[in-house]
């Protein structure tokens, strides 16, 4: 489906996510597992804060000189005998890729995990070709493909929302007769995928980092599927976002270390590969090496307050710490890029009309900012989006907008605020009721509760009770004046 | 030592008791306390909702109000509000309505004086035991802004360790937000509900009778959900705890107690 | 046309960034700190060996240290333990360097042995890799910090040699144990700059292939070898 993964409105997606008990439990378990692994891996490395700064400095430098690095990289791919296609839009990218497959007379496409190809909705396009088969070879993406192309829900663990029984059912349709042990099912997938790898003539891979000074790419995987996809077929098509450059292998190595520890809590991923166009005398690897460099609105962030989001290395750590992601999962966001990074990136790539709700789907707890290995101030960027939508694009309307503006006025004027303090108790009286209290010392104001408040307050009272505000005579400031008098202050 | 109380709109609107307890604790520890009159709010409700233009006057009022009274320190009952006031100098860099930078200059002075209640007691006053006694089992909810934006992970735990009779049990999932998030709780109430419900479950699982925090907003949120579900709990701000059954003879300085362990949780 | 649409694409980016292109030569990247170089830099070779073993075994990898003299027997035992051939071996001078030429002859007498041949085509070499029960490679480095061996492809040692066989063994000299990936990368960069390395693929391999994609339960042997053995040879 490309960037947008759901046609349901936001509130319906949230409701659906709230109902999905399994996804809920499995995401919580995954977050907790990754929490321990990630923090341990970072602690072992030591000086984590300085490593983050190092990673940030590399990524910021590359973005600052992105045109130069892209030029250098493409020159070097060409020198090695490869091809580079710069695609401003998904249509251009897809058109080029399909053309290459046709030119190379490709029939069997194997893909390793690539978020950018999902952005292109490339699988659908490939399926539409006559005489071309396409297979996702990352275990999770293979599972999703065989489940009628279910949407991914995480950028590192795409099938995180499925349990072993669901996978079992999917594999049974492929002829699997074993039990639901993940190890047995993984072996079945190995056998099944191996046969198709061996007949593949086109390999499509993503790219963790493109090495500017040598025209090769860097891939990080644990399964080894990317390595088969770049070894066996005679043609490799690399699809990458335009920002994924590093100056040289030296900086790639630093990023690989940050990525593995942040994404999966390992020192390095099992396979860290630097590869490109086959060299003279070699018999495997791509004889035909193509790189597609995609903009697809990324450049909208360049030179703006959102530029830092392009530092992202897709480790998924911000998803793994996010309390909102924990509750609504990847599908709740309705974007290929969920979680905090997705809430920042999706409106840039897909516009505010489609993804305008996502920046508000955050409590701004800053867990994302705290964990990001390249120091992207994610929660601040969410506020920036809110500012753009509210102040610049004037997308907020109606009663809520009016109330927020009144909050602004009321909290800026001591006179108005004083008036509010005087009348808050009485003003909310129509919505205030005596009701049983299970909570004691609920700001010490007896049993008076607001349970179905007016205006914006209803958002609060839909979910929880609100203690009625104190009478003016009980306010802190009134008490303090008396206290000062008792204390003997002259004023 | 002259201390101004940064009241917060929460304290004015909902939780006056927290202010009273703060004042009593601080005076007991030797501070001369005052409350700047014209202060209202740090500006987060509008700023974090994207109403940035509307937030500049709120911040300006806050700066004017707090700067109006001479003081050595400004102490706040909420980690979140403390954190944003420490961020004022960064935020005001984008303020088009402060062309001469006069608010920026004041904001820097105020930010340097600004402390959250628990960190002020431990790190500035150097007091480890306020002489309080509360015989119960409690759990502590850590607010996200106090932990991550203010960077204070330790002082509430250290102060609670020295409350006589108090057993503090670790809250599972302590790193996860309770779902308050200011206007988030209102605007995205469906998501907020899931988050606060999870927090209620974790708090219940500790078996604690009391839930303590340093942020009244979180307490109002978690307490409100407890009450909606009809589940029992007592909620207390740390200032209330430190003002319970105080015996001044028990007051101890940081130098008089064993050095506590670093941040007990992530 | 080997590069398409580049100039308008890059001009647009430069415009967004608000600065002209071709600034980089005057502003090369300066590494912010030397953490990559400093990490584990004070360890002695003996300590690095200990760290390498510990981290490799944790992966899990079967880890052996042998003398040059004991290497042939170890390999023979390994082949027997893994159930014999077909074997896939690289075509390389390393067999001479490690004094394994006699072993090559001996093992070929008992097992089916195929070589990754510089003169063979893609299909032939891939077939040899596909049917191989065991492959043996010669590694350039062993990284202590992560328990990683690094290998570079050449006409006699293709990429798939490391990935298609069921069991995988890699031989590395003790003198090539380095602290971490930093040192290995520095060497590869130096060799490339001097045109001594023309490899199109450098692989850092850290234990057996694995996946946590089903319920985050880690399973080994998804696409690549099911198990991995490192042999450190005293030199």
TrEMBL record, chain A:
<keyword id="KW-0004">4Fe-4S</keyword>
<keyword id="KW-0411">Iron-sulfur</keyword>
<keyword id="KW-0479">Metal-binding</keyword>
<dbReference type="InterPro" id="IPR003741">
    <property type="entry name" value="LUD_dom"/>
</dbReference>
<dbReference type="InterPro" id="IPR017896">
    <property type="entry name" value="4Fe4S_Fe-S-bd"/>
</dbReference>
<dbReference type="Pfam" id="PF02589">
    <property type="entry name" value="LUD_dom"/>
</dbReference>
<dbReference type="Pfam" id="PF13183">
    <property type="entry name" value="Fer4_8"/>
</dbReference>
<dbReference type="InterPro" id="IPR037171">
    <property type="entry name" value="NagB/RpiA_transferase-like"/>
</dbReference>
<dbReference type="InterPro" id="IPR004452">
    <property type="entry name" value="LutB/LldF"/>
</dbReference>
<dbReference type="InterPro" id="IPR017900">
    <property type="entry name" value="4Fe4S_Fe_S_CS"/>
</dbReference>
<keyword id="KW-0408">Iron</keyword>
<feature type="domain" description="4Fe-4S ferredoxin-type">
    <location>
        <begin position="302"/>
        <end position="333"/>
    </location>
</feature>
<protein>
    <submittedName>
        <fullName>LutB/LldF family L-lactate oxidation iron-sulfur protein</fullName>
    </submittedName>
</protein>
<dbReference type="InterPro" id="IPR024185">
    <property type="entry name" value="FTHF_cligase-like_sf"/>
</dbReference>
UniProtKB/TrEMBL annotation, chain B:
<protein>
    <submittedName>
        <fullName>(Fe-S)-binding protein</fullName>
    </submittedName>
</protein>
<feature type="domain" description="Cysteine-rich">
    <location>
        <begin position="139"/>
        <end position="222"/>
    </location>
</feature>
<dbReference type="Pfam" id="PF02754">
    <property type="entry name" value="CCG"/>
</dbReference>
<dbReference type="InterPro" id="IPR004017">
    <property type="entry name" value="Cys_rich_dom"/>
</dbReference>
<feature type="domain" description="Cysteine-rich">
    <location>
        <begin position="3"/>
        <end position="85"/>
    </location>
</feature>
UniProtKB/TrEMBL annotation, chain C:
<dbReference type="Pfam" id="PF02589">
    <property type="entry name" value="LUD_dom"/>
</dbReference>
<dbReference type="InterPro" id="IPR024185">
    <property type="entry name" value="FTHF_cligase-like_sf"/>
</dbReference>
<protein>
    <submittedName>
        <fullName>Lactate utilization protein C</fullName>
    </submittedName>
</protein>
<dbReference type="InterPro" id="IPR003741">
    <property type="entry name" value="LUD_dom"/>
</dbReference>
<feature type="domain" description="LUD">
    <location>
        <begin position="109"/>
        <end position="233"/>
    </location>
</feature>
<dbReference type="InterPro" id="IPR037171">
    <property type="entry name" value="NagB/RpiA_transferase-like"/>
</dbReference>
């Amino acid at each position: 489906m490309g960037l947008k993964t759901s046609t349901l409105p936001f509130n319906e997606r949230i409701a659906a996510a709230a109902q999905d008990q399994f996804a809920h439990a499995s995401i919580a378990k995954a977050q907790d597992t990754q929490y321990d692994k990630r923090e341990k891996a970072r602690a072992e490395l030591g000086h984590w804060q300085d490593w983050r700064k190092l990673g940030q400095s590399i990524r910021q430098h590359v973005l600052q000189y992105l045109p130069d690095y892209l030029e250098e990289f493409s020159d070097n791919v060409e020198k090695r005998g490869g091809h580079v296609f710069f695609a401003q839009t998904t249509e251009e990218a897809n058109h080029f890729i399909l053309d290459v497959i046709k030119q190379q007379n490709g029939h069997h496409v194997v893909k390793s995990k690539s978020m950018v190809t999902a952005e292109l909705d490339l699988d659908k396009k490939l399926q539409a070709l006559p005489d071309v088969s396409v297979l996702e070879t990352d275990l999770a993406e293979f599972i999703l493909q065989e489940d009628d192309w279910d949407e991914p829900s995480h950028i590192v663990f795409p099938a995180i929302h499925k349990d072993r029984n669901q996978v079992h059912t999917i594999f049974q349709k492929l002829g699997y007769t074993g039990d639901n042990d993940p190890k047995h099912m993984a072996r079945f997938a190995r056998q099944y995928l191996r046969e198709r790898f061996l007949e593949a003539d086109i390999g499509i891979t993503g790219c963790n980092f493109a090495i500017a000074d040598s025209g090769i790419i860097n891939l990080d995987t644990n399964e080894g599927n990317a390595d088969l996809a770049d070894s066996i077929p005679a043609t490799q098509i690399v699809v990458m976002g335009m920002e994924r450059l590093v100056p040289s292998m030296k900086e790639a190595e630093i990023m690989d270390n940050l990525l593995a520890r942040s994404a999966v809590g390992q020192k390095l991923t099992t396979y860290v590969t630097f590869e490109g166009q086959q060299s003279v005398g070699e018999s495997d690897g791509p004889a035909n090496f193509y790189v597609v460099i995609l903009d697809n609105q990324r450049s909208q962030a360049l030179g703006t307050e959102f530029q830092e989001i392009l530092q992202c290395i897709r480790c998924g750590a911000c998803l793994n710490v996010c309390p909102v992601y924990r509750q609504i999962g990847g599908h709740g966001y309705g974007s290929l890029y969920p979680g905090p990074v997705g809430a920042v990136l999706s409106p840039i790539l897909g516009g505010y009309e489609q993804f305008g709700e996502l920046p508000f789907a955050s409590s701004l707890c800053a867990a994302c900012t705290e964990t990001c290995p390249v120091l992207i101030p994610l929660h601040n960027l969410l506020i920036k989006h809110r500012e753009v939508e509210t102040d610049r694009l004037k997308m907020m309307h109606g009663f809520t907008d009016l109330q927020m503006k009144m909050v602004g006025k009321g909290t800026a004027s001591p006179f108005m605020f004083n008036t509010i303090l005087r009348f808050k108790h009485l003003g909310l009286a129509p919505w205030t009721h005596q009701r049983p209290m299970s909570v004691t010392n609920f700001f010490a104001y007896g049993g008076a509760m607001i349970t179905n408040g007016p205006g914006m307050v209803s958002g609060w009272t839909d979910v929880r009770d609100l203690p009625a505000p104190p009478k003016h005579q009980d306010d802190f400031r009134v008490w303090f004046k008396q206290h000062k008098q008792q204390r003997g202050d002259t004023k | 030592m002259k201390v101004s109380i940064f009241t917060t709109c929460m304290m004015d609107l909902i939780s006056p008791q927290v202010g009273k307890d703060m004042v009593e604790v601080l005076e007991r520890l030797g501070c001369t306390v005052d409350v700047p009159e014209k202060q209202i709010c740090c500006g987060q409700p509008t700023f974090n909702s994207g109403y940035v233009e509307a937030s500049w006057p709120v911040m300006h009022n806050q700066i004017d109000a707090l700067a109006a009274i001479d003081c050595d320190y400004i102490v706040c009952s909420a980690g979140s509000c403390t954190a944003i006031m420490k961020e004022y100098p960064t935020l005001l860099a984008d303020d088009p309505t402060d062309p001469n930078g006069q608010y920026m200059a004041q904001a820097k002075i105020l930010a340097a004086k600004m402390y959250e209640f628990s960190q002020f007691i431990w790190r500035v006053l150097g007091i480890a035991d306020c002489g309080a006694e509360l015989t119960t089992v409690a759990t502590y909810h850590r607010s996200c802004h106090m932990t991550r934006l203010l960077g204070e992970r330790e002082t509430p735990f250290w102060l609670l360790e020295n409350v006589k009779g108090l057993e503090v049990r670790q809250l599972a999932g302590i790193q996860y937000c309770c779902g308050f998030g200011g206007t988030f709780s209102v605007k995205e109430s469906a998501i907020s509900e899931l988050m606060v419900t999870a927090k209620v479950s974790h708090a219940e699982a500790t078996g604690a009778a009391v839930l303590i925090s340093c942020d009244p907003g979180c307490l109002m949120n978690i307490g409100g959900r407890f009450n909606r579900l009809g589940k029992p709990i007592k909620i207390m701000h740390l200032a209330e705890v430190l003002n319970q059954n105080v015996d001044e003879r028990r007051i101890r300085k940081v130098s008089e107690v064993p050095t506590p362990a670093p941040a007990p949780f992530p | 046309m080997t590069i398409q649409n580049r100039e308008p694409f890059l001009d647009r980016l430069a415009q967004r960034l608000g600065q002209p292109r071709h600034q980089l030569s005057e502003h090369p990247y300066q590494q912010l700190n030397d953490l990559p170089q400093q990490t584990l830099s004070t360890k002695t070779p003996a300590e690095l060996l200990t760290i390498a073993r510990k981290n490799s075994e944790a992966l899990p990898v079967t880890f052996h240290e042998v003398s040059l003299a004991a290497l042939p027997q170890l390999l023979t035992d390994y082949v027997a333990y893994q159930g014999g051939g077909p074997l896939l071996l690289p075509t390389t001078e390393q067999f001479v360097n490690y004094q394994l030429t006699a072993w090559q002859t001996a093992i070929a007498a008992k097992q089916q042995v195929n070589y990754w041949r510089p003169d063979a085509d893609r299909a032939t070499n891939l077939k040899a890799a596909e049917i191989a029960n065991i492959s043996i490679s010669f590694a350039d480095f062993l990284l202590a910090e992560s328990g990683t061996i690094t290998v570079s492809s050449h006409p006699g040692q293709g990429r798939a040699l490391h990935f298609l066989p069921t069991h995988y063994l890699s031989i590395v000299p003790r003198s090539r144990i380095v602290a971490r990936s930093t040192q290995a990368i520095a060497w590869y960069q130096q060799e490339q700059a001097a045109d001594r390395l023309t490899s199109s693929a450098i692989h850092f391999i850290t234990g057996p292939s694995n996946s946590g994609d089903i319920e985050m339960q880690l399973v080994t042997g998804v696409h690549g070898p099911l198990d991995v053995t490192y042999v450190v040879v005293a030199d």
